[in-house]
Every structure is written in C-alpha cells, then in structure tokens.
Design brief:
Blueprint: E1 7-12, H1 18-25, E2 30-35, H2 40-50, E3 55-57, E4 63-65, H3 69-79, E5 85-93, E6 99-100, H4 104-108, H5 115-118, E7 122-124, E8 133-138, H6 141-146, E9 156-158, H7 176-186, E10 190-201, H8 213-226, H9 232-258, H10 265-270, H11 277-283, H12 287-310
Parallel strand pairs: 1-2, 5-10
Antiparallel strand pairs: 3-9, 4-10, 5-6, 5-9, 7-8, 8-10
Helix pairs in contact: 8-9
C-alpha cells in the first residue's frame, strides 16, 4: 500500500469481531464502518461513497486477492489511459477446498472464442512480477450481454474515466454484479488480464450465490431488459443477438418453472409475460392448472430419458 491508498471495511450488520481485527492493524489508512444489514450492494455503495480515490477495487469477505493483483492492474491502466477498468482471470476452490486454476471460463460460461472478445493477445511483464502475462484490451459491452465475465473481486475501476457515475443496484438477490460490471463496460474499453489474480471461494459458507434457479433467471432477464435493452444505439447494431439472448433466458425460465423449480409458477411466469409467446399464455392459467401441467411436463421428460436409456 502507498500512503495515498485506503482500505474501507464495511460490516453489513454482522455481529463479529471485525472492528477488533481492523483496530489491531493500527493503520490510519484502514477505515471500519458498520451499517444495518442492507445487502452487499448497499455495502459496496457505502464504500464507494466514502472513498477519496478514483481507483476502486472490491473484495468480498469470502474471496481472495493475489498479492500482486493491484500492482499489475495499476500498471496496465497507466499504460492504457482510455481504459475505464481492468478485470482478471480467477482461480476457485470447490466445496472441498480443492483449487481450480483458470476458472473464468467455467464461472462465466463463455460461448465464444476468447480472442474474439477483446482482440488479439498482448504480452506484458509488470514491474515486480515474476513472469510475462497475457492481456487483452478492447470494448467488452457486447460480450457482457452474452454472459457475465467479471467477478467483482477481480475488478479495478477508474471512475474518473467514466462518462457517467452510478451505483450498485440495491435489492437484487442475484446478478447485481452483472448489472454493475455491464454498466462499467458501457463507459469505455476495458482490460482483461489472463492471469489468476483473484480467488472465488466456493468452499465458503453462506455464499451470496446460493439463490433458487428461477429467481436467478428472472434477475438475468432484468439485467438484459434494463441495461442492454435501454441502449438504442447498441440495439440498432445488435438487435438480432439481443433477441436471441432474451429468447434463451425465456426458454430457461419455461423449463425451470415447468420442471418444478418453484411452487409459485404463475407469479414467476407473470414476471416475464410482457415478452409474449408461451410464457404469456401460461401466465394466464391458474396455479392448479399449471401444477398439473408441470407434472405432465416432468413425466414426459422422465419418459424421454428412459426411452433414450433403453435405446
């Protein structure tokens, strides 16, 4: 840490000894604040509000940084003054604590070749780093529409380079990070470092990502509609791809609802009924009818699996 750096620790309503741990460092650059339980987005917003610097990085208490993460990212942002942010590859631990390197591809479920995302490979050896690293630089907004590629704990933003200032959306149970990082990518080009500089701990208890599947799909539709669907210039160029992306989530919603993913089928379908099609038709049916239909749908799928197994 430099003299100008700061660490802001936001306690989101936990009754633990975080304050004591921070105080033990006896470092004026480390600040501790506590708020009532308002969710992770509110905590991140408070940290951004209190920060005096424009370079801001996020880390959840169940994630981890490589010791050289910020060093690498700072150097790359200095090399590319037009870039608004830098994110990195990640490693992960599973529920047993086993480490998985190069995890971004599995976590983000990318659906196209990486070189098509951010251009050709660039090589760089950061000061104080032990080896050359590969990185990519370019516009990432279209790719964020296809899927979420950015783990918040791998991200470093420079908000002084943004065209607009914004916050994390409070109240979303899932995909609030996809919404935020997509808005970041809309501000300008970004840098991706193809080196594991952050860890996504799947072995941590009570992960924020433990949300039912139907709610996850509805939150993804929210991001698509309220971020990418509100950019006329973007849609003019990518309307076909956007429509296909929406259709993919609607198909997933149908299979999740009718496959038994929720007991509130009509309510879940009604949330996306404005898209029309079979979702809108099913949303008009009473819950008992949907329950019978769900049973038939699941029975038909089971029969198909048995048939294939016997074949």
């Amino acid at each position: 840490m430099t003299d100008q750096d700061e660490v802001i620790v936001v306690n989101n309503g936990d009754n633990d000894d975080t304050a004591g741990v921070v105080a033990a460092f006896d470092d004026a650059r480390i600040r501790y604040v506590k708020q009532e339980d308002a969710g992770v987005s509110a905590s991140r917003n408070l940290g951004m509000e209190l920060s005096v610097n424009d370079l801001i990085a996020f880390i959840d208490d169940d994630d981890e940084w490589h010791p050289q993460k910020l060093n690498v990212q700072r150097q790359l942002l200095a090399m590319h003054p037009e870039a608004v942010a830098c994110f990195t590859n990640i490693w992960a631990t599973d529920s047993s604590g086993v480490q998985k390197p190069n995890y971004l591809f599995e976590w983000g479920q990318p659906i196209q070749d990486w070189n098509l995302l951010l251009g050709e490979t660039k090589i760089f050896r950061p000061n104080g780093f032990e080896q050359d690293i590969e990185y990519y630089f370019g516009n990432h907004y279209f790719n964020q529409m296809l899927d979420d590629y950015v783990l918040p704990s791998s991200l470093l933003i420079d908000r002084s380079r943004f065209k607009e200032q914004f916050e994390w959306r409070v109240g979303m149970q899932r995909n609030e990070s996809w919404l935020f990082t997509s808005r970041v990518c809309r501000q300008g080009p970004v840098i991706f470092v193809d080196y594991d500089l952050a860890c996504h701990h799947g072995d941590a208890p009570n992960r924020l990502t433990a949300i039912p599947h139907v709610e996850t799909v509805l939150s993804r539709l929210y991001v698509l509609e309220n971020e990418f669907g509100r950019q006329p210039g973007f849609l003019q160029e990518h309307q076909g791809e956007f429509d296909k992306r929406i259709a993919r989530e609607l198909d997933t919603l149908f299979r999740s609802v009718m496959g038994g993913g929720t007991s509130h089928r009509r309510e879940s379908l009604a949330a996306a009924a404005h898209h029309g099609g079979k979702i809108a038709l099913l949303a008009k049916l009473p819950e008992p009818t949907l329950s019978v239909g769900s049973f038939g749908y699941r029975a038909a799928r089971a029969a198909r699996r048995i048939f294939r197994g016997n074949g």
